[in-house]
Specification:
Blueprint: H1 33-43, H2 46-52, E1 54-57, H3 59-68, H4 71-76, H5 88-96, E2 102-104, H6 109-119, E3 129-132, H7 150-155, H8 159-174, E4 180-181, H9 205-220, E5 232-235, H10 254-270, E6 275-278, E7 282-283, E8 286-287, H11 292-302, E9 308-310, H12 317-321, H13 329-339, E10 344-345, H14 349-359, H15 365-381, H16 395-398, H17 402-415, E11 417-421, E12 434-438, H18 463-470, E13 475-479, H19 490-502, E14 505-511, H20 539-547, E15 553-558, H21 566-571, E16 574-579, H22 585-593, E17 649-656, E18 660-662, E19 667-675, E20 681-691, E21 702-711, E22 716-723, E23 730-731, E24 737-738, E25 742-749, E26 758-765
Parallel strand pairs: 1-2, 1-10, 2-3, 3-4, 5-6, 6-9, 12-13, 12-14, 14-15, 15-16, 18-26
Antiparallel strand pairs: 7-8, 11-16, 17-19, 19-22, 20-21, 20-25, 23-24, 25-26
Helix pairs in contact: 1-15, 2-14, 2-15, 3-5, 8-9, 8-17, 9-10, 13-14, 17-22, 18-22, 19-20
Bound molecules: beta-D-glucopyranose (BGC).
């Protein structure tokens, strides 16, 4: 197919107007946004409108690929943008002609400003909106604060922290001329084989909803020039892929979709999210990118979503070349737009084909106007017309500032889960003077996690560096295992085993490899799914050989997904899950090991023993384990909500202010929590509900509230939860919401494990 620039036909519509001093209304900052949009739309040609609906990757990204990859690689690697016959210079030309609405993967403020300067040469000077995957800080770009990834953040159960991180990220993004983050990922992660668990808030719809809405509010503020646009993604079902691989089919009943996967998206829309990304996968046979039920009926119709929908990477194209529901690309664009799509990520054929579809009368121009209106409204509200550039001189005043670094450290401290402690922790520097440190993640920037570029060494504290910083008197003996779990050497394992015999204690830092810069070597992250959740390579052997020294061995896991380390959980005294803790992960791990920080995080996702146990979730149906497995356990390695502290917290006095309520009634539940330990601490108190008998089967329990409570040694606090009808509601046989009369069991405690929970029962009366 021949690609050519589309020449602009200048047809000024009649609806345009000027303010008193001759400035077009759309350029008048004091005019209401609605009027500015109408005025601008009235001036635009069809080509310019369709251009607003298209996104391209940044020129530097294209150039890097043009320079380093063969044509064949480029064509066959969907992670790289490549348009045969249309190169970076052509994209620049189109930008000057006003045919590009947005860019993604622009990594420097200089490039963003440059691209904007091209857009400012266009006829109507409509600024481009820059989108980027700022999933845990604007970490894909260098020199930004890198917070823990979402899975760790969710383990903090701290919505205020999620809000603060999103605010800070918005500030760092605006300082780079970025306006739109492709986050929060509010998928519910129900399969640990899936490589993207780390960018989600875990397996529970309630927790994901609360973390997601806090994040949306943090990014968007009041949607003005200090804020960035949030994007709730990926709509929907990708967190339970057929075989655990990214983008494979989601075959889910409408009940499951509505009960499990929709709530976080609905919460995101209600929190004001103004963009939404559809999922790679098909849902029950209909690809999400051409699914009008999802985009139009549910998101816009049922929830009142007012923002714009963006496609995911090449996924409209995949309607044709993967899902095969469209015979050609033009048909794919047609299907997607008519199902409700507003913006195309990313590529060259869009402009020409979509204009043709309009001219042929297949897509009404008013349908195009709808999408353009939504996109322009965001550009106006975010102040891009008044402030198209960021100040390159002051950009670093904001990025990586002290306050943001402090938040990154706090978040790491609150997100690291102490899974097991036989009393070895906190470590005594007097007792353990010589300490072996080894494992692929012991001294590596991989702790930054997926969706992060490498960052300067002075902005990252590795775990080894953290240990040396926190316990300066200890002799840490480091045995390097390289960064690559797939290529560990027996010789290095033996070296570590030999050193272990000479040390007083061992710290093995194992896990997954997520760094995007070595895409093909990763073991976890986007498009990096596994059929197993055991440790990769010689890591298990390393742990066993080091432990065979007879010296106490601490295992720290750095990973975006749950890992089934059953042997270690049984045989080692200490197991710590650090997730992907970000730039100060090393400091936070060390502070926790040495008791400078009391761990408080709780698992946002169940840790199964093996991939064979999948699906393993805490909120399963009553019959799930009626017949347990033979030969292996049917229980998780660690349950959802589990996480230890250096204190024990005693739960007592669970009570309700009434035991009978009408279906629309509310009750108060209180529970006392006492710090029985000797350190200040924070405990995450969890409230679960079970509907005892119901017309359709209900989960054995569902998280319905939580509270993070700070307690001094010996202190008791009474935590109060309000049980409102929505916490008792479910979908009846006709998928209508109902609160049924009958018994409900309310449970409060430190984890989802039945043995940890205090219980009481209440009745909903007719
Ligand atoms: C991912 C999205 C992401 C997009 C842009 C896709 O491969 O699925 O989550 O926002 O790339 O980087």
């Amino acid at each position: 197919m021949k690609i050519h620039g589309i020449s602009i036909i200048i047809t000024l519509a009649i609806a345009v107007s000027c303010s008193g001093d001759g400035i077009p209304v759309y350029k008048d900052a004091s005019a209401p946004v609605g009027r500015r949009v109408d005025d601008l739309l009235g001036r635009m040609t069809l080509e310019e409108k369709v251009g607003q609906m298209n996104q391209f990757v940044g020129l530097e990204h294209i150039r890097r690929n043009e320079a380093s990859l063969s044509e064949d690689d480029l064509r066959n690697n969907t992670a790289n943008a490549f348009y045969p016959g249309f190169n970076a210079d052509s994209v620049a030309e189109w930008t000057k002609e006003g045919l590009v609405g947005s860019f993604l993967h622009v990594l420097t403020v200089e490039e963003a400003n440059y691209l904007q300067s091209l857009a400012m040469q266009s006829r109507l000077q409509i600024p481009v909106i820059f989108g980027i995957d700022a999933v845990h800080g604007n970490a894909n770009a260098p020199d930004n604060t890198v917070y823990p990834t979402n899975i760790g953040l969710a383990c903090s159960f701290d919505t205020g922290l999620a809000y603060r991180i999103a605010r800070e990220t918005a500030a760092e993004m605006r300082a780079m001329n970025m306006h739109w983050t492709f986050n929060p990922n509010v998928e519910v992660a129900r399969d640990p084989r899936w490589g993207r668990v780390g960018e989600t808030f875990g397996e529970d719809p309630y927790l994901v909803s609360r973390m997601g809405e806090a994040t949306v509010k943090g990014y968007q503020g009041d949607l003005s020039s200090d804020d960035v646009l949030a994007c709730i993604k990926h709509f929907v079902g990708g967190g339970q892929p057929a075989n655990g691989t990214n983008g494979s089919p989601a075959d889910l009943s409408e009940r499951t979709v509505r009960e499990v996967f929709f709530p976080p998206f609905e919460a995101g829309v209600k929190a004001g999210a103004m963009s939404l990304m559809t999922a790679h996968n098909e849902l029950n046979g209909i690809p999400c990118h051409s699914n009008g039920w999802l985009m139009e009926d549910v998101a816009r119709g049922e929830w009142g979503f007012k923002g714009f929908v963006v496609s995911d990477w090449m996924d409209i194209e995949h309607l044709h070349d993967l899902h095969a529901t469209a015979e050609n690309l033009k048909e794919a664009f047609f299907q997607s737009i008519m199902a409700g799509m507003d913006m195309h990520m990313h590529g060259v054929y869009w402009n020409e084909y979509v204009c043709e579809l309009v001219r042929e009368g297949r897509i009404p121009e008013r349908r195009i106007d709808e999408s353009v209106r939504r996109i322009l409204e965001m550009k106006f509200r975010l102040g891009l017309f008044e402030q198209p550039y960021a100040d390159e001189k002051t950009t670093m005043d904001v990025r990586l500032c002290d306050a943001h670094r402090q938040t990154a450290l706090e978040a790491a401290r609150k997100s690291i889960v102490l899974l097991k402690n036989d009393g070895l922790l906190p470590l005594s520097p007097e007792k353990y003077r010589r300490v072996l440190v080894t494992g692929i993640n012991a001294d590596d920037h991989n702790i930054l996690g997926d969706w992060s570029a490498d960052q300067k060494p002075e902005n990252v504290v590795t775990i080894l560096e953290g240990l040396r910083m926190v316990s300066p008197g200890t002799d840490f003996v480091f045995v390097d295992q390289g960064w690559d779990p797939r290529n560990m050497s027996e010789a290095n394992v033996e070296k570590a085993a030999a050193q272990a015999r000479r040390c007083d204690l061992n710290i093995v830092v194992a896990g997954e490899y997520m760094y995007r810069g070595r895409w093909n070597e990763r073991t976890s992250g986007e498009d990096t799914d596994r059929s197993d959740i055991a440790l990769v390579g010689l890591q298990d052997e390393l742990i066993r050989k080091v432990a065979a020294s007879g010296k106490p061995t601490v295992l720290v896991l750095v990973s975006g997904r749950p890992l089934g380390t059953e042997w270690a959980a049984e045989h080692l005294p200490v197991l710590v899950n650090a997730w992907e803790p970000g730039m100060y992960g090393g400091q936070a791990v060390a502070e926790i090991l040495y008791g400078k920080v009391n761990p408080s995080a709780k698992l946002a996702v169940t840790i199964p023993r093996s991939a064979g146990q999948v699906q393993m979730i805490y909120n399963h149906k009553p019959s799930q384990y009626f017949h347990p497995y033979v030969l292996t356990e049917s229980t998780p390695l660690y349950p959802f909500g589990h996480g230890l502290s250096y204190n024990t917290y005693e739960y007592s006095g669970l009570s309700v202010d009434r035991t009978e309520i009408p279906a629309d009634g509310t009750l108060k539940l209180t529970v006392k929590v006492t710090n029985k330990g000797s350190m200040d601490g924070e405990e995450i108190v969890q409230l679960y509900v079970r509907d005892r008998f119901s017309q359709v089967t209900r989960p054995v329990k569902e998280l319905k509230d939580f509270a993070r409570v700070a307690l001094k040694p010996g202190e008791t606090r009474t935590v109060e939860f309000t049980v409102t009808p929505d916490k008792l509601r479910f979908l009846d046989r006709n998928l209508e919401p109902v609160v049924e009369p009958g018994e409900f069991i309310l449970m409060a405690g430190p984890s989802s494990d039945d043995r940890d929970l205090l219980k009481t029962s209440v009745h909903v009366i007719e």
